[in-house]
Every structure is written in structure tokens, then in C-alpha cells.
Amino acid sequence: MKLIFERGEEGQFLSILPKCDVPVTKLPEKLKRAGAPHLPHVSENELSRHYSTLAKAVHGVNDGFYPLGSCTMKYNPKINEQVSALPGFTGVHPLQDDSTVQGSLEVLYDIEKALCAITGMDALTLQPAAGAHGEFTGLMLIKSYLRSKGQADVRKKIIVPDSAHGTNPASAAMCDFTIVNIPSAPDGCVDLDALKAAVGPDTAGLMLTNPNTVGVFDKNILEITKIVHDAGGLCYYDGANLNAVMGVVRPGDMGFDCIHLNLHKTFSTPHGGGGPGSGPVGCKAFLADFLPGVRVTRTAKGAYKSGSAKKHFGEVKAFGGNFLVVVRALAYILTLGKEGIPEASKNAVLNANYMQACLKEDYDLAFNVYCMHEFVLTLDRLHKETGVSALDLAKGLLDRGIHPPTMYFPLIVHEALMIEPTETEPKEMLDSVIAAFKELKKVAYENPQALHDAPLHTPVRRLDDVRAARTPVLRYKFS
Prior knowledge:
This protein is α/β, with parallel strands linked by helices. The chain has 15 helices and 13 strands. It is globular.
């Protein structure tokens, strides 16, 4: 397809524009460009066609099945969009006096209470803009607490399981911690002996996802957090997989001291094209004084008041974070309520186990146990017998209108495909996807070249991954 800069000609334009409703001010000459910007000259017709063509070239949850494991790409209800588009939310400014934004402050107050109730935490900041941003914030909470106890220079090590999301060690390194990697046991859970050997007087904390990255709920979770606490460390919960247990089990009751949530996963707000997201961080009371961002309290007369935590370590984003994403999440929580939140989790677990049970006769399971919201296939044997890799199978799924699951992750599983169907998919959709997987296995053995050549029917054929990574074209060069 043509880029927008390659469309139109000089003289084409859109004349139906609203009148300017603010005073026109001329820029000083020193601030003006040396030349006119390279803006395309297109009519409304061409502009509409351009964006329609772009929309057809991408695959989202609205287009079809999107089972990215550990990402929870579930449907975003349109009522959330309608609520977040209300003028009372879109027309406010973060520097307005509290008395003029009581409704917005009430949103921040209510969602903090709701998320704390769901997670078992005592306080929460909505400032972080994404999951990894939340990890960074949570680790800074731990660091600030250790500093207040005079232990920051001694407790420098963060323990991370080998199945963790890659952002975990990266976030710890950004906070100047040393990362201690521990292996998983054969069942995919934390190796308790390895954990006991790793903790000590230099332990700052543990980063853990539960259910973990292979979709298994760690049965030893209370012992795990106790081992870390007994060594003087803190426990951080990566909330990426909370969709499996929200409203059913609370991380705070598992022994975790702080947690980040992905509103753009668990609470149905859009992932966006790399943003905006929202990664709130909750914590137990002893960490609350270190939280960054806007802290909303309610006065005796029922008014809402904004402020800051007493010993906050700084700001990680402006004001209260991505506010309209928070509005969407609160709309989702209020729509489902106390009954709907756990029902969504249970349906996510049911869908994943249904798919796993239907596929385990045709594919090898990385861990042959009841899973939570996601499960992992290993195509190692299929690859050895047919030459068809996990990547080839994923490309075959694209030709069938199915977004591939997460590939080659977690790293502890060879030729991994991690599948998360989410609770918003009906059985009819699951059955059609299961049938596609079964058909692709048959193709792998009967005509493997067909999968080596896939995809055949997508807007772009198979890319040169190495070249795309090493020599990406990131800018349009004007002639």
C-alpha cells in the first residue's frame, strides 16, 4: 500500500474545517521552521481511504481470535469507551482546583479502593503508564523502604525465576539491583531448594508471577513468600497474569508486599499501539508513604482532596497517569461487580483448559497439568519429525485468520507456543481454532513445505526477521 506521503498532489485539500476558537498568535521568527513541513496534500476522500486501508492491514481483537499468552488480549467493551469520552472527563485539566474536578478525583479514589480490594493491598498509585513501568515503580518502593531502614547498600539482590517475563530482570537492573536467576522445578514452579540457597542477608526481594508464565498456579506460594520474608526481603507480584485469579485469590493474601496491575490486560482497557496503557502499583500499608503520584483522600464532609504521599520517591509520570484509561477500567469493574469479576476469571481458566484438553492428543504439552488462563505447547518433537517449527505453524495460523499465540516463550520450553484464549471467546470460536491447529498438524506431516511458505494470503508475506531487526527502515525519506 502507499504511504500517506505518497498519496495526493499539490492543491488537494480538505476545506471543511471548524473555525478557530482561540486567539491566533504569530510565532517569533526564530521559532519558525526554515522550510515548510512535508505534509501530504490529500482530499477527505483520499484520507478516509488511507485509514480504511490501514485498518484492513492489521489484526486486532475486533477482527478475530487473538490468543497471545501472558498478554490477555481480551475484548474492550464499548461502554468503557463511551464513558471515557464524556466531556466531564475529556475536558478537564490536571492543574484545576480540586473543587472543580470532584468527579475525576472520585474516579481515582474509587478505583484505588476497588483494585486494593481485588488484590489485597492497602494503597495504590495510578501513575505508572505500563506494566514494566509498574515493575520499576514497585522496585523503587522496595528500594525506598530499604533505604529508610538503612539497608539499601546491603540488600542489593532481586531474585527472579528463569520463567519470568524479560521485563522483570530489566526493571531490577534499572533500579541498580543485582539479579539472581533461579531455575524452575520440573513442574514449572519455583524450585524451593534453589530459592532457599539464593536468599540471604543481601536479598532485597523476589519478583514473581502467580499463576506463572507457564500457566501454572504455584502450590507452594505461601512457603515461597515466607522464605523470602524470613530472609528479610520483600515480595513483588507481577500482575500480568491476574486475569486467571482476579476476585478468586488475592496476591496480598499470598504474602506479597507490592504488586503492579495491567489495566490494559486484566481490566479490559486498550493495549493501544504501544500505548497508552496503565500499570498501577499497589502495596501494603508499610510501603504506602513512598508511593508516587496523586494520592486522593476523602474528607469527613465527603469531598475529595488530592495530595502526595509523605515520603514519595519522586514522580514516574505526570499527575495521575493515563487518566482516561483508568476511567475505562473503572467502568469495567463497576459493570461486572463482585459477582462478575471472579466469573470472568473462572471462564478464562475454563476456556484455557478446554483448549488444552482438546489439543493434547495432537500436540505435546510443556506441562501436562491443569492450567490456569494459559497453557504452553512444545513443538519440539513436531519440529524434529517434520522440520515445521513453531514459527512455521504460527504463519499457517495467519492464513486462517487467527493471530498466532506467543512464540518461543517462555525460554525454558523449546519450540514453545503459549496460548491464552481469554474469557471473552465463545465455545464456537474455540472449536474453530482447535480445528485449525489439528489441520495444521496434518499439513506439517503431509506437506511441510506449505507451512515453510506461509503466509500466502496476508497483506505482507513472510519477512526477513534478521534483516528487519538489524537494518530497520524507521523513517520515510522524501525525494
